[in-house]
Known about the structure:
By secondary structure, the chain is of the alpha/beta class. The chain has helices spanning 57-62, 73-83, 88-95, 99-119, 121-131, 172-186, 198-207, 217-243, 246-255, 261-268, 275-291, 306-325, 331-348, 351-373, 391-397, and strands spanning 4-8, 21-33, 36-47, 53-54, 136-143, 149-155, 161-167, 191-194, 213-215.
Amino acid sequence: MISTVPFRTELTTCPYCHRKLVFHRKRERPVRTASGDFTALHIIMKCSACNMRFRSRRLDSIIGHGCTYANDVMPDISIRRFIDGRSCQEISSSLNISESHARRLSNMALGIFSDIHRENTERLKSSMKSSMKSYILQIDGTTDADFRMIVVARDVVSGFILMVKRCDSESHESIKGILESVKKQFGDPSGITCDMRAGIISAALETFPKTPIRICLMHFLRDLGKDLMRDMHTNLGMMINRMRIKDPLKRIFRDMPDYDQGTLDEIHNGHYEDRGKMEIMSVRRIMEKLVGFTGSSGYGFPFSLKHLNFYMACKEAMNRLNLLSEKIQSEDAKRYISSIECVMKKITDNPEINATGRKLGSVNALFQSLRRMFRVPDKGKLSDEMDTSDDDLIHGRCDMKYSLNT
């Protein structure tokens, strides 16, 4: 349930004529923040003498006039996109806003943050020097709504963004200009991490010839996963979509009765009187995982294989329904299971889908082993709850330093 929060001016008298403020009108407006939604009940006051209106300064500091999204949404989206490396599609799903709006807000914030950043370069340099002797430069890029590149230069050690700039591409010339600006302001880094794009690597070698370059494990795994699984994953998705089972499953699910609280209480207490309701709720529980299926673990393809995950969810649901059908007695529950199995067999009994699913599953198992070896988490930032006690040993065994001779 969305809560309602009242807002009114902190003034009790008019600052101009010093007469008492009286009620003018109420206005409700939805407010969507990065941490949740609420309804703002804005109580607008007016001067009893000069009729001047007074709004709540607190509400105006939370959200702009005429806006739906609070002021904290823009920086939150920007941090997720430019620092945490989330795509606009993932941000859209997690915050329940449109993908185009997430891209537009983050692009607007990029210009604002860039101006603030330039004004505080000296403070940034001073803070970096006080906390460490040198910095490690990370270079990465994303695209804006016009498919122009947004290149981000970041210090891995402090987490500070050193420079952000739009350019037409990640070409040698474009990246070299950005790196020269970074070098002029912050000096040479002790190390560089980047993806495997030739333009970035060649520009880094030319700008910082004595600085070692290491390939970013996240980008290495992403590119490897795309090469290994993209075609199979796309084909599997096309075959599943041709079966058109998602809408029929949703219709069956909508036709099923909702959970009965009385029966749930009885089960919680260790007994039940209506076995039929319990059996239908068991079927509904299995269906929920399919109907509400998203298949994403946070980083997108190839770290999340939504088509393979849906295929595996169908197989698991079919096995659970088969086991349940051996024990149920209710005719209604049997009817639901029969209808669901009739639809799902288009996936689970399809030889071509099964062959592709098994092959893709085997390749993905190898990919996930590499992911665990490189310690890329399922969700969150790469540094979240990461044990770095054996980093030196790992680097010694898995040296990915780039050189012109490789």
